[in-house]
Amino acid sequence: MGSSLLSSLPNAVVVHSGGPTAVLNAGLAGVSAAWEGQRTAIWGARFGVEGLLGGDLVDLRQVGPCRDLSGSALGSSRRRLSDAERDLVIDEFRRRDIRLMFFTGGNGSMAAALAISRHARAVGYELQVIGIPKTIDNDLHITHHTPGYASTASFFVHAARDSGIDNRSLPGRIAVLETLGRNVGWIAAAAAFARSAADDAPHLIYFPERRVGLDRIAADTEAVFRRLNRAVVVVCEGQLDEAGQPFGADVDHGLATNVGHMIAKGISARLGVRVRADKPGLIGRSTSTFAMVRDREESYRCGGAAVAAAVRGETDVMVALRADGATFTTALESVAGMERALPADWISPAGNDVAPEFLDYLRLLLDSRSARIA
Predict the structure, then answer these.
(1) Per-residue pLDDT for the chain (374 aa), expressed as one digit of tens each?
(2) What are phi and psi of 28, to 5 degrees?
(3) Which of 267, 247, 270 is CA-nearest to residue 259?
(4) Which domains does the chain have, with CATH numbers?
(5) What is the dihedral of CA 258, 262, 263, 268, to 10 degrees?
């Protein structure tokens, strides 16, 4: 994008919010590349809103090449601002004459961006706000998918495949694989892509969208175990039982920390079989080994599309993706603070597997190296 198109853009800041991903920095690189030739300043907030509050901003031109790095080159934050803290943010914007904010994150982050925009308007400060999508959970509305999801999905495809190979090698055992995903089942569902034959792992998959009791999980697992003398069960970290409880797991900041372990204990107690629980945890979102080429390219494209939206004078919008990777914008109000669940008809009637439509969806997003075992 040439500098002539950017001549009217004001000083800007980029803010990362929420958990980083394997391709988050590609979006930052996309913003930087689109800004090339611009004479006005563009900063990056160090550790998200913490940098806005403390005036800790770095010249984005001084941030080294980061497109292929996982994590966040700027740092991120999950802090939620009070009205008084939003006043401090606006004070920092006034001091540096920042009139444009790019805010990268998921549904909670888009809500935070919208709150800052509304606060600015309420105090009479002109501020243009553009959201850039980022979440491994894939739970943003409107957009077909989100940068970060495919790479984490690829990790758990490989984890489920390799767990199944290990499980097949030592018969008479059961494995429980806990995935990321918080309150939605998009990542857990991805594990189904590991199968190349009917009896390949994972044999059972459960989703936060469908509450299920431990007795039901144990009965389903027993049926598989009796037939195959092995079983791999996938559960999401946000899975709840029929009473809405996390199976007796420890809870930290509203999220259970050991659901897979507690389910494994419950299965073992009921079936009298050795059951192991595996929890890759944040390794699943942070590893660059399984980062998808398309995922990284789309993250980069979203960064450039955010600058293009700013050029067009748009505000209070988020960049979104179509199935083919093309970008468009949607109102922040359409995505802020709302979780997109895995569609009900993409879950099997029994509630313990995916429907074929989900596999068609995921196949579009994964590179060939994530194809099923031949």
Answers:
(1) 344 444 579 999 999 999 999 999 999 999 999 999 889 999 999 999 999 999 999 999 888 889 999 999 999 999 999 999 999 999 999 999 999 999 999 999 999 999 999 999 999 999 999 999 999 999 999 999 999 999 999 999 999 999 999 999 999 999 999 999 999 999 999 999 999 999 999 999 999 999 999 999 999 999 999 999 999 999 999 999 999 999 999 999 889 999 999 999 999 999 999 999 999 999 999 999 999 999 999 999 999 999 999 999 999 999 999 999 999 999 999 999 999 999 999 999 999 999 999 999 999 999 865 544 33
(2) -60, -45
(3) 247
(4) 3-148+291-334 (3.40.50.450), 152-288+342-370 (3.40.50.460)
(5) 140
